[in-house]
Specification:
Blueprint (H helix, E strand, L loop, with lengths): L4 E4 L2 E6 L2 E6 L10 H16 L5 E6 L10 H5 L7 E2 L3 E2 L11 E5 L2 E3 L1 H8 L2 E5 L3 E3 L13 H8 L2 H10 L3 E2 H6 L5 E3 L4 H13 L3 H14 L4 H16 L2 H12 L9
Parallel strand pairs: 3-4, 4-7, 7-9, 8-10, 9-12
Antiparallel strand pairs: 1-2, 2-3, 5-6, 10-11
C-alpha cells in the first residue's frame, strides 16, 4: 500500500495493490466540484490509465457526503468552465474516454453532479445512507453532465423521469432494488466493500476485463451484428495477450493465475 498523495488541494490518491483510490476531499463544501476537484480527478484517472500495474480505479468522497454536485458558488461567480476539463468534461470525468473499470464508493448523498459522476462509473457500491438524484430543476438548472440520459439506462424510465421532473432523491435501497447500485452495505463501509469488489475484478485477466467492459458498453444497445463484431475483437485481443497462455496453464496446473496485464 502506498502513501496517500495530494493530486490537488481537493483530491487525494492512493494505490492499493492493483487498484487506485481517488478521493474527493472537500468536506467543508460537501465535496462539491470546483476546478481543483475536476483537475484532480482527471489526473487520477490519467494515472490509472497509464500505469500497467493498475487495473481498477475507485472514486469516493470523504464522508459524510460523496459529492453534492457542482459548486454553485463557483457557477454564480462565473467560473462554471472551471468545473470541467477538456477531456473529461464535468468533474474531469463524465465524458472521459478510458479503458479500465472504475467503481464508485458512495457513503452519503451523491446528488446532482455527484449522481452524474456515479453514472459515469462502471459499478456502484453504496451505503444505506446514500441517496442519488438530479435536483437541478429545483434551481432552474438542467442536469447537463449525463444524468438525464444515463439514469434512464440504469433504472426504469418512468423512475428516471420522475427523478428528472421532481428533483426528488432516490434512496440507496431503491437504487439497489432497481439495479443502479451493485452492492448495498452498512453506513461507513462503502469504500471497504468497493475494495472487496475491486479485488474480485482484479482476480481476473486485466486485458480480458477491459475487452469485456468495452463490449458491454458498446454492444448492449447496439444491433446484434455490432455485438458479434465487438465480441470477436475482444476475444482476439485477449488471445493475443501473454495472460491468455497463463490462464490456460494455471487452470491445467490447478493454481491461481499470475496475471501480468499484457
Amino acid at each position: 500500500m502506498s502513501d496517500v498523495t495530494n493530486l490537488t488541494d481537493a483530491v487525494t490518491y492512493e494505490v492499493r495493490g492493483h487498484y487506485a483510490i481517488i478521493t474527493i476531499a472537500r468536506p467543508q463544501a460537501r465535496n462539491a466540484v470546483n476546478s481543483a476537484v475536476a483537475n484532480g480527478i482527471e489526473v487520477g484517472i490519467d494515472r490509472v490509465e497509464e500505469d500497467d500495474d493498475l487495473w481498477v480505479g475507485i472514486i469516493t468522497g470523504l464522508p459524510p457526503v460523496f459529492c453534492a454536485g457542482a459548486d454553485l458558488k463557483e457557477i454564480n461567480s462565473g467560473n462554471a468552465a472551471g468545473l470541467q476539463t477538456e477531456r473529461g468534461g464535468f468533474a474531469g470525468f463524465v465524458t472521459r474516454e478510458r479503458t479500465k473499470p472504475v467503481i464508485a464508493a458512495v457513503d452519503g448523498p451523491a446528488l446532482a453532479g455527484g449522481t452524474e459522476i456515479t453514472l459515469a462509473c462502471d459499478l456502484i457500491v453504496a451505503s444505506k445512507s446514500a441517496t442519488f438524484g438530479i435536483p437541478e430543476v429545483k434551481r432552474s438548472l438542467v442536469a447537463a453532465a449525463g444524468g438525464l440520459f444515463r439514469l434512464g439506462r440504469k433504472i426504469p424510465l418512468n423512475l428516471a423521469m420522475e427523478a428528472a421532473l421532481t428533483g426528488d432523491p432516490i434512496s440507496a435501497e431503491m437504487a439497489h432494488h432497481h439495479g443502479l447500485v451493485n452492492i448495498l452495505c452498512d453506513d461507513g463501509e462503502a469504500l471497504d466493500q468497493a475494495m472487496v469488489l475491486a479485488d474480485r475484478v482484479c482476480a481476473n485477466a486485466p486485458i480480458a476485463v477491459r475487452a469485456s467492459r468495452r463490449v458491454v458498453l458498446e454492444g448492449t444497445n447496439a444491433p446484434d451484428d455490432v455485438g458479434w463484431k465487438l465480441s470477436a475483437e475482444g476475444m482476439g485481443q485477449a488471445m493475443r495477450s501473454e495472460d491468455f497462455s497463463e490462464g490456460l496453464t494455471a487452470f491445467i496446473e490447478k493454481r491461481p493465475p499470475a496475471w501480468k496485464g499484457r
